[in-house]
Amino acid sequence: MPMYSREDATTLQVVxxxxxxxxxxxHPEEGGGRTSHAIxxxxxxxxxxxxxxxxxxxxxxxxxxDVVGVAVLADYHARDAAAFARHHDVPVxxxxxxxxxxxxxDVPTRRVTNSLAEFExxxxxxxxxxxxxxxxxERDGTLxxxxxxxxxxxxxxxxxxxxxxxxxxxxxxxxxxxxLDPERVxxxxxxxxxxxxxxxxxxxxxxxxxxFPRALVSSGPRELTAMLDAVR
Length: 232
What we know:
The chain is about 20% helix and about 30% strand. It contains 5 helices and 14 strands. The two termini are about 15 Å apart. The relative contact order is 0.14. By secondary structure, it is of the alpha/beta class. It has a 7-stranded mixed beta sheet with strand order 1-2-3-4-5-6-7, with helices on one face. A 5-stranded mixed beta sheet has the order 8-9-10-11-14, with helices on one face. The chain has helices at about 55-60, 80-90, 195-205, 210-220, 220-230, and strands at about 15-20, 20-25, 35-40, 45-50, 65-70, 90-95, 110, 115, 120-125, 130-135, 140-145, 150, 165, 185.
């Protein structure tokens, strides 16, 4: 099973759904579990976050409203953002500080700094060239984390429902999440957490270091493969 498929998707799987959004995986068979999201803003417009293309994917989010923007929130998540931007005739919005992804987009881009579609943006620079932006919308408690947090068996250990990336477990990023109590946590890799999401977030960050030895043994090879594959 590949960590990240480089082939055109032939199917898709919806993995997240809530009143104002939906998430899908264009390659549900891959180990890296890349997930894309469509989220409706307060004006009824739809934003596509880190999207991957798949057959009939527009049907997945058509009932949410008209697409008004495409956004990439991690430097290694260019994915198919340019294709979606061309299809919907919108630019790709990229938070300040993410420069690698802009160099890989052949469509118009625009920058934002502190907010996007009612989401507060918080910048993260975990390791070297690894840069991403966490997005949180207070009115409905929606938190989106592109890479630092993940779900699924490739990343979690034991009873974890949400996991800090292996390479950050010894020094997990506490500050960006310290004041948050989300209703749901959406991630760029895996299915979202919709039940007791605040507790899952607190557990993931608070116990990341303690679980490092177990994670190193059980998920270390997969996470290393995922990281190396992502920079190809």
